Amino acid sequence: MSPEIATIVGLVIMFIVATALPINMGAVGFALAFIVGGIWVGTTGKEILAGFPADLFLTLVGITYLFAIAQKNGTIDLLVHWAVKGVRGHIVAIPWVMFIVTAVLTAFGALGPAAVAIIGPVALRFAKQYEINPLMMGLLVIHGAQAGGFSPISVYGGITNQVVQKAGLDVTEMAVFLTSLGFNLLMAFICFFAFGGIALLRRGRAVADEPLIAGVQASSRQFAIEGHGAVVSAGGGTLSNNPQALEEVRINRDHLITLVGLLGLGIAALVYDLNVGLVAITVAVAIALVSPSAQKGAVDGISWSTVLLISGVVTYVAVLQKAGAVDFVGHGVSAIGIPLLGALLVCYVGGIVSAFASSAAVLGATIPLAVPFLMQGQLGAAGVICALAISSTVVDVSPFSTNGALVVASAAKEEREALFRRFLVYSGLVVAFGPLLAWLMFVVPGWM
């Protein structure tokens, strides 16, 4: 069996085993990376570990640790209630605020994972607090990041435009940006109405004396007794949704320190392009040093099972790439003599690979694969490039990609496993139909 085929078979086995048995898929991924990589690919243990996603590992650990501290000292609850007050009680507006904020961040140059790492945990806390479907909330954050991801000054936009210019294709920067924006906005509307948006519209405004989640009434009574500050329970404080009580809340020292830390994280990641994981864990340690009692037990809030799962799968995918399986499939697709079908298959190659690997890397690899049949002049270059760009990034909702993993890891502990499976189902549908929809919308009209 060739290395290419062996690694593809191993990928299928990994999914079957982890689906049929209660075994962490990441653990299976590490084992298969060792077995398949050692026997068929000829990689040593050191070479296998070179594919370990250290950056993603530290990002997941740092972000979940920092926000576990922020949850325990009541800062996240404080932000949640202030934001709800800002939208005047219209809970239905919250998911769209998250979509817009994330889109603006990426449109102005922030990396998608950096924006999701900052907005995702807050958005998931909103979802938990106000009984918004966490799947819908998380998907709007990710699609927001992709909506702004191809602006001319963004990372994805820069990569795409550079490859396009090098190939000598006539595709404008704004064409790619606007098509991605429109496509992800469409996906956001679909997610909103498919996963609870209608119920949110019917809910109307939050009512002061109507608890939005179980336990809020108890928190409100405790607040009335204690009088000031955030009420912090064993699982992280929950403030009352009573507007009058909220007016009396005073920011304490822990809140202020945490807010400054979160602001520092945003500036460091978005303005200075520093590593999100390193900055997050540095901020978390700084808060812990200043207020040790406020972070007690926060390490337990790190999503270790998700970290293992993502790290193992990505490590195996690195072995698959080293075996040449991606190039094997890609070159086979580009050799097809039917340009229209070739464009569709390249879109699928980009989508499937990007669901597990770096979208930036996939963009740089798949666009050159399309150049040979674009030169035949039968297809519009702009439509094909736009379809490839969308196909390679819309699948970032996968829980095995950085964005999807961050959102799943940010969910409440009791929701994490169920949310992971729902993300897996949704991302499977996106991988199956996303490239096809992009092809139908942007490639087929140019051929006709």
TrEMBL record:
Signal peptide: none annotated. It is a multi-pass membrane protein. It is found in: Membrane. Keywords: Membrane, Transmembrane, Transmembrane helix, Transport. Residues 1-149 form the Dicarboxylate carrier MatC N-terminal domain. The keyword Transmembrane helix applies. The chain crosses the membrane at residues 6-36, 48-70, 90-123, 135-155, 175-201, 256-289, 301-320, 332-357, 369-390, 423-444. GO terms for biological process: transmembrane transport. Residues 275-441 form the Citrate transporter-like domain. InterPro entries: Cit_transptr-like_dom (IPR004680), MatC_N (IPR009827). Its main location: membrane. It holds the Pfam family MatC_N. GO terms for cellular component: membrane. It comes from the Bacteria. This is Dicarboxylate carrier MatC domain protein. It comes from Pseudomonas fulva (strain 12-X).
